[in-house]
Amino acid sequence: MTEIGTELAPIIREITQIQITAYAGAAGDFNPIHLDEKFAKTTQFGGTIAHGMMIAGLVSELIATSHKRTWPESGKLKLRFKAPVRPGDIVTAHAKVKQIRGTELTYSVGVRNHKDEDVIIGDATVAVVVE
Amino acid sequence: MPLDYVNLSIGDVVSCREFVLDLDTVSEYVAAVGDRSNVFEPESVSPMVPPMAIGALSLRGVLDDLGIPSGTLHAGQEMEFLDSVLVGETLKCRATIAQNSVRRGVRLVGVKMDVVRGARTIVMSAKSMIMVPA
Q1: CATH of residue B96
Q2: A32: buried, middle or exposed (CB in 10 Å: 19+, 13-18, 0-12)?
Q3: Contact yes or no for B60 and A27 at CB 8 A
Q4: Distance of CA A55 to the CA centre of its chain
Q5: Cα(A86)–Cα(A107) distance, rounded to whole angstroms?
Q6: Which residues of B touch A39 (CB under 8 A)?
Q7: Which of A33, A71, A79 sits opposite B71 (nearest CB)?
Q8: Of A74, B37, B93, B118, which is most buried by a Cβ count within 10 Å?
Q9: Can you name the residues that pair with B130 across neighbouring β-strands?
Q10: ipTM score for this prediction
């Protein structure tokens, strides 16, 4: 039985530059802030950072793991990117039920880095299959 | 050629592309993000595309057409998944400007994307907020 406050098992991953580079190729996003250390050093971040969509993918993976087919068929995601994720960061994607309305569940979702800083915050809503 | 962001107005169509989510493209995406949700099962007869892959791979064409300048940042993302998509399907992504404003020296551009199967079935609707150096 899902209740308000129920948490999904978090996903914990280390983010590497190899992964960021692979994502750039897969997603066709070659912004130098993600790939070019020399360029990235001149920016406010002082080095390369991961693509926001790559990290957001962890939130989607987390919800999909629990809700299977209903996520691709009815999922809603609203995210704010609060802070950069750098190569070497260990991030944790988390989700906690914050609202149950009819057959819809809304999770408070997010991703934190190993310094316990929020890097992504937001909500995810998904329909629940009634057996 | 990069777009002139200053003159973009709400409703302007900035990208309209058709693309196929083939097995190689989706497999490359799943390997890159390390998705272990099992939504994507490449050995099945009709593998399903992970929903974020639809978003990221739709955004790919939009980024090309926007010609975003170096240093552009992704500030926020909204996505609504309306139907599952199978590997091999042809989709069309239409992107329009939803917001274009300058705040504290930073241009905030909202891009709305509708990803459609066939004539009118929207499979995903999304809005990306990007911060472009003003």
Answers
A1: 3.10.129.10
A2: middle
A3: yes
A4: 4
A5: 26
A6: 70
A7: A33
A8: B93
A9: B74, B109
A10: 0.89
Chosen for mutation from B25, B81, B127 (greatest number of chain A CBs closer than 10 Å) is: B81
Does any CB of chain A come closer than 8 Å to the CB of residue B64? yes
In chain B, the number of structural domains is: 1
Contact flag B51-A76 (C-beta cutoff 8 Å): no
List the pLDDT tens digit at each of the 131 positions of chain A: 689 999 999 999 999 999 999 999 999 889 999 999 999 999 999 999 999 999 999 999 999 999 988 999 999 999 999 999 999 999 999 999 999 999 999 999 999 999 999 999 999 999 987 65
Q: Are B122 and B102 in contact (CB under 8 A)?
A: no
Is-contact B15 B65, C-beta < 8 A? yes
Domain that holds residue B96: 5-133
Interface test with B, best of A35, A55, A61, A129 (most B CBs within 10 A): A61
The DSSP letter of residue A111 is E
Q: A27 with B56: CB under 8 angstroms?
A: yes
8 Å CB contact of A73 and B72: no
Q: Which two tokens stand for residue B2?
A: 């990069």
Domains, chain A, in order of start with CATH, read 11-127 (3.10.129.10)
